[in-house]
Specification:
By secondary structure, the chain is mainly α. Helix content is 28%, strand content 0%. The protein contains four helices and no strands. It has helices at residues 4-9, 46-52, 60-63, 86-97. The protein starts with a helix and ends in a 7-residue tail after the last helix.
C-alpha cells in the first residue's frame, strides 16, 4: 500500500478555481494547489432515485381508482385444544369398550 506522502507527490496541482479563473489571492505552495473535485452531475441515492422514477398515475381512470377493497374481518380460529369433562371422557371410553353387536 502506498504511503500518503507518495500519493501526494504524484498529485496533480490545481491552479484554477471552480469558476475556471486562476487562483491569485493565495501564495503558491511547493506542491501547487491541491483540492478535491466533486462531480458536476452526482447520482441520486437509491431512495431518491426510486421516488423520482416510480410509476405515476396519469390516466384519468387510474387517478380516480380507489384503494383495495375492504372485506369484513374473518372469524376467530377454533382453539387447538378442547377440555372435556371427566364424565364425558368416561362415557366415551365406555362406548368404545362396548362389544360391537347388532343390538344397542
Amino acid at each position: 500500500m502506498a504511503s500518503i506522502t507518495g500519493m501526494l507527490a504524484y498529485a496533480v496541482p490545481m491552479s484554477c478555481t471552480s469558476s475556471g479563473r486562476p487562483r491569485t489571492s493565495y501564495p503558491a505552495s511547493p506542491g501547487g494547489w491541491m483540492g478535491v473535485e466533486c462531480s458536476s452531475r452526482p447520482q441520486k441515492k437509491a431512495t431518491a432515485h426510486h421516488m423520482k422514477t416510480r410509476p405515476k398515475k396519469t390516466q384519468p381512470w387510474d387517478v380516480r381508482r380507489k384503494g383495495p377493497t375492504a372485506y369484513p374481518p374473518l372469524p376467530g380460529l377454533p382453539p387447538d385444544w378442547t377440555l372435556v369433562p371427566e364424565e364425558e371422557q368416561a362415557a366415551a371410553k365406555k362406548v368404545e369398550e362396548a362389544p360391537a353387536t347388532g343390538e344397542e
